[in-house]
Structure formats: structure tokens, C-alpha cells
Amino acid sequence: MINQVKNFKFIFPFYFGIIQEPTLFSTTIMENIRFGKSNATDAEVIEAAKSAMAHDFIQLFPDGYQTIVGERGVTVSGLFSVFF
């Protein structure tokens, strides 16, 4: 079996990829992050953002974590280019 696994023709029918497309919902940044853990406290959400190196960027928005991002992030997409 191990020799067969080394053979690409054997693996090909079982090979697949997982497409990862970030999704933002039409709600606040805080609530978008909270989707990962629905019972997370605000402090836990902020800690998660810090771990993802997003906290400083989020703080640049006038309303910070309470900024409404809009469906798929349309509300904040232009702001990104303003800051960077």
C-alpha cells in the first residue's frame, strides 16, 4: 500500500483541495470575529484579533470594533487603501 501511495496515479483520484475564501457578514467587525466562537466575550474577540495581528488595523477605523463591514466587506474595502 505504501508503494502505491507514492504513485501519483494512485493518489490522484483521492486528491482534492479546499478553497478558503474569507467571508465577512454585514455586521460589526466584533461580530464577524465572534462568528468563530459565538459565546466569546469582547475581551476574547480582541485577544483573537491581536493574535491574528489585526487589532492595530481594526483600531484605525473610526468606530474600531463597532465598524459595520457590510456584505463581503464592501463598506471597509476602500478604507483599507486610505490607511495603507
Structural class: mainly alpha
**What proportion of the residues is helical, as a percent range?**
40-55%
Largest sheet features: none
Strand content: under 5%
Uncertain runs with pLDDT below 50, 5 residues or more?
A: 80-84
Mean pLDDT: 76
Count of DSSP-assigned helices:
6
Shape: globular
Distance between the termini: 52 Å
In angstroms, what is the radius of gyration? 19 Å
Helix and strand string, N-terminal first?
A: HHHHHH
Characteristic key phrases:
84 residues, mainly alpha, 6 helices
Description:
By secondary structure, this protein is mostly helical. The chain has a domain at 35-72. 46% of the residues lie in helices and 0% in strands. The protein is built from six helices and no strands. The longest helix has 10 residues, at 42-51. The radius of gyration is 19 Å and the shape is globular. It starts with a helix and ends with a helix. The relative contact order is 0.15. Mean pLDDT is 76; it is low at 80-84.
Summarize the structure.
The protein has helices at 2-5, 8-11, 29-34, 42-51, 55-59, 74-83. It is mostly helical and 84 residues long. The protein has a domain at 35-72.
Detail the topology: elements first, then pairings.
Blueprint: H1 2-5, H2 8-11, H3 29-34, H4 42-51, H5 55-59, H6 74-83
